[in-house]
Amino acid sequence: MGRSEKPLDPTAGPVQRFAHDLRALRRAAKSPTYRDMARRTGYSAPTLSSAAAGERPPSLPVTLAYVAACGGHPDEWERRWRELTERLPSGPTPSPDDPAPYRGLARFETTDDGLFFGREHLVGDLLEMTRKHPFVALVGPSGSGKSSLLRAGLVPALRRLPENGGRPSTIRICTPGETPLTTHGGLLSPVEGAAPTVLLVDQFEELFTLCRDPSERSGFLQGLLHSRPILGEGGLRVVVTVRADFYGHCADHPELVEALNTATQLVGSMSPEQVRDAIVKPATASRLVVERALTSQIIADMAQEPGALPLMSHTLLELWHRRRARTLTLQAYRAIGGIQGAVAHTAEELFRDMSEAQAGLARMMLLRLIAPGDGAPDTRRPVDRDELARSPEAEAVLERLVRARLVTADDATMNLSHEALITAWPRLHTWVEADRERLRLQRRLTEAAREWAQLDRDSDALYRGTRLVAARDAFIKTDGSADDLTPLEREFLMESLRRGRYTRPFVAVSRRFVRSRWWLVFRLATACSMVLWTVWFLNRDHP
């Protein structure tokens, strides 16, 4: 008889259940001793015993050896083992002493240069261009890593320059936002001295996607283009990143065109060797091992997915969470759906654990973080935290989105981790397509409400006419509530309705009637009546 084992509760968890079933298999085989099983399999008795201890999942080879020694069916137990390991994290929980070597959907920051690999040649070209030209543009498609290249590549390279070799006195970083001149106008003045001040403007396309005020846009552009000294005498050097699909918007500004024609660096796809470096070198720096088969599979998948660097980084971070000991495995990669499926896998795991009310709040928040494209791709929209977290319940949901790395927090500003999330997560993409026109109305309402507040709630800035009717129909429910509007937006819309309450209902009904099929019926009936009346009039004296 085999030696006795400690009691095991199969309801304590999937690992305990798996071990319980292994023990049942051994009992069905008339309980061979672990020493006898060791002689049949080549594994030691303690190794085989630990497979059924229920403390941790055994490896697949040990599981199959245990099963073979007990006369079980290897195919069935391999399937059960894979189902078990896919449900469990494969490595220890990250800690401050064991940081992740990958950044997921988040960009690399200026302190991450020790983990930023694969773009060394491009960093060198960009550095040289920045030293020679006062205005440089870094242009590339979404997902090509422009923001990370700027922060984790160019900034450390500038700091490593010798003091008499062009090292800047100050490096500033900003994104334009909705009011670039008001918010960042102070950054356009260089620090006095012989060394230049370098201003890095990330996501330069926000000048066209978020900024609606032409004077703000023009003033900011003028500050960028005309704070340029004679080379070698300090002043302001500017480097901007521009999404390739918004590059054409720059053509509307002649001076900007001139600057771009002088110094533009194009960011292309990474070569297979560069992708390999981006995968393996951060792991090596953290004393991790990446299976060769995994590296080859990711390189092959990346060749089919241009602009997928954020998706690759997110996938690698998920693999790190599911690592087996210190190894990133191809099995875990397949379990989370590879490059395209990893983001959706992470997001859907989060949503499965949410209640219906929590999922509704998460949907509202995520849609507010998106600016729907008008003849252009959808983009991220940074918002103040207060715009999303308007209750304790909303605050808790927002924190869950941040912990899942779907949303990033930068001080009091919230943002989607990356625009790739909009297309890579089918649920979010479906929401955007279903609510596209409503999202456009909401963005306009947000801007109008802010302008109204800035004008001390001037009644002339309120909605009227068709804009008021459209906003009312889109955001006011039948019970009079407007839950997905901020307090300012709700106040603005309610005040607009109050001011227009005597005329708007009639106008709204009239417009709805004109748009309906009954308008066609009315016109046909009127035409028929006119014909009949004309016939009667012409023939009234002729019996």
Commentary on this structure:
With 543 residues, the protein is of the alpha/beta class. 54% of the residues lie in helices and 8% in strands. It has 26 helices and 12 strands. The chain has a 5-stranded parallel β-sheet with strand order 2-3-4-1-5. The longest helix has 22 residues, at 517-538. The radius of gyration is 32 Å and the shape is globular. Mean pLDDT is 84; it is low at 90-97 and 502-509.
Low-pLDDT regions: 90-97, 502-509
Helix content: 40-55%
The total beta strand count reads 12
Mean pLDDT: 84
Write down the Rg: 32 Å
Which descriptor suits the 3D outline? Answer: globular
Work out the helix count: 26
How are the strands of the biggest sheet laid out side by side?
2-3-4-1-5
Q: What proportion of the residues form beta strands (DSSP E)?
A: 5-15%
Largest sheet: 5 strands, parallel
N-end to C-end Cα span: 121 Å
Question: What structural class is derived from the secondary structure elements?
Answer: alpha/beta
